[in-house]
Amino acid sequence: MSASRKWPSRFKPLNIVLAILLLGSCLGGGFALYRWRASRSFFDLPKLLSRFPQEDATVVDINFALLRHAGLLADSKAALEPEYKQFLDGTGFDYRRDLDLMVGSFSKSGNFFIARGRFDWDKLRNYAQKQGGSCYEQLCRMQGSTP
Predict the structure, then answer these.
(1) pTM above 0.85, yes or no
(2) φ, ψ dihedrals at 124, nearest 5°
(3) Could you read off the pLDDT of 90-146 as tens digits, one per residue?
(4) How far apart are CA 65 and CA 94, in angstroms?
(5) C-alpha 14: how far from chain center
(6) Most-buried pick from 3, 31, 40, 68 (CB within 10 A)?
(7) Could you tell me which residues are beta bridge partners of residue 135?
């Protein structure tokens, strides 16, 4: 017998490499699918509502992407409110173009909003701070023009 060992035909190095690549692809695809589903489930309405304070509240859910698709958010000929114009100039954020979904809760303990869209967080954070607000990570707070 020879001192060198031969691989059985089904365990050739090329087959092992292909099996490892296939396994890695399956694991990577499964992880990507999991992350995609987790990110989509954040915006399920029952899950969103569970993130608000549990008390009597008025809740509103507005699908801006659907309104935009229906042509209901087209440019208006009416002049913009000065406060909104200042916000638009300071942040570059225009709800007609950048906001896709907004869920709001109005209650005794305050008004709370969760939004999905395209945000320039640096500009929004700078605007909030210039207006006397404060930010921690991606949560900013500031006073509105009316209590």
Answers:
(1) no
(2) -65, -45
(3) 999 988 889 998 988 898 888 888 888 998 989 989 999 998 888 888 788 888 777
(4) 13
(5) 42
(6) 68
(7) 140
